[in-house]
Input
Amino acid sequence: MLNLFTLRRMPWSSSNDGQEKVVLSALEVESLKSELADLEEREAHLKAQLENVDQILRSARLAGYLYIRTRWAALPGEPPPLDDTEVDDWLPRFVVLQGPCLFFYLLSTDLSPQDSTLLPDIVEIGPLPSFTREDEETHYAFYILTRLGLRYECSSSSKIQVDSWLSALQTDCKLGSDATAPNGYM
Output
């Protein structure tokens, strides 16, 4: 029965008084202490991630996973951008609308965003045509254009989620929904 509870690398021995003991060398004890310290450090990191996600979700106006791809507007004198609609370069990102800023995280548990943009820098927001991905799922999309010429294209399989983002961003950026994109977009 004792073998069911034997921890790996830990030899058990019996004493004269009928009690079971684990016999460890000093090296094994130090190794276990090191493993415990690593586990405590990992636990502290996971707690920090959880607290960060909790704080983000409590203070955010809107948050959730969207598929994102970025494009730059053509500079004056450059040829128009190539038609890359067939390229599937949509990457899932955790997007957070918080205060005057839009944050893009790789994962919801990341402690710092990968990218961000200020709402006053957004010059246009609008819908994009829906499309079908390789997994045969329809995705609804919208774009965000910044004054620097950076265009975020965002999509989701949920039309309600896309409509929520469009409405919230247009309200917060004080932009109308009838805007048309410059530089031949849309």
Summary: The longest helix spans residues 26-59. Residues 1-6, 177-186 have pLDDT under 50 and may be disordered.
